[in-house]
Amino acid sequence: MNLGDQAPDFCLQSTGGDVCLADLHARGPAALVFYTTDFTPLCTNSLNVLADEFPILEKLNTTVIAISADSIESHFKFMSVNKFPFSLASDPSCQTIRAYGVLNEDGVSSNRAIICVDQKGVIVHVNQFFQPADSQQVVDLFSVLGYRSRS
């Protein structure tokens, strides 16, 4: 996916009910957070970084949806342990993962990536390899969504 591309629409089962991109970006920007698998330390850390910063994302009117190929049942178990403030969506066929160009080399999971879509359905941010320890990546995400620090 490239900046300025129209984001591929999708509808997936999630821990918050069925979720479709068209419904998300109609309310404001959407941050699509792709991750490899539930219960792995690095993916858990990636989602926790965003959970910790969720109040800022809410102020920016951004809907966050985390997407992996894991089953919805696995997502519910993962949520029960971690209490993320956003939904986890299941893409077991990897159709959405593939459409967004973040399919892992194994062909059955996603890379850790963040793609933001504006209210018109246009891609405004692409991070193909999200590294949760890189705070600049989080700053870049917030900047694209309109956050301005007071410093």
Any overview of this molecule?
It is a single chain. This protein has helices spanning 21-27, 41-52, 54-59, 72-82, 95-99, 135-144, and strands at residues 11-14, 19-20, 30-34, 63-68, 87-90, 113-117, 123-127. With 151 residues, it is of the alpha/beta class. It has one domain (11-144): 3-Layer(aba) Sandwich (Glutaredoxin). The longest helix has 12 residues, at 41-52. The radius of gyration is 14 Å and the shape is globular. The N and C termini lie far apart (33 Å).
Quick gist of this model?
Helix content is 34%, strand content 21%. It is α/β, with parallel strands linked by helices and 151 residues long.
Classified by CATH, the class is: Alpha Beta
List the total number of helices.
6
Percent helix among the residues?
25-40%
Provide the gyration radius in Å: 14 Å
Count of DSSP strands: 7
Total tally of structural domains: 1
Q: H/E series, N to C?
A: EEHEHHEHEHEEH
CATH architecture: 3-Layer(aba) Sandwich
Globally, the shape reads: globular
Q: Can you summarize the main beta sheet? A: 7 strands, mixed
Question: How far do the termini sit from each other?
Answer: 33 Å
Q: Please tell me the overall pLDDT.
A: 92
Low-confidence stretches are none
At CATH level 3, the topology is: Glutaredoxin
The CATH superfamily is: Glutaredoxin
The class by helix and strand makeup works out as: alpha/beta
Name the beta content range.
15-25%
Going across the biggest sheet, name each strand in turn. 2-1-5-4-3-6-7
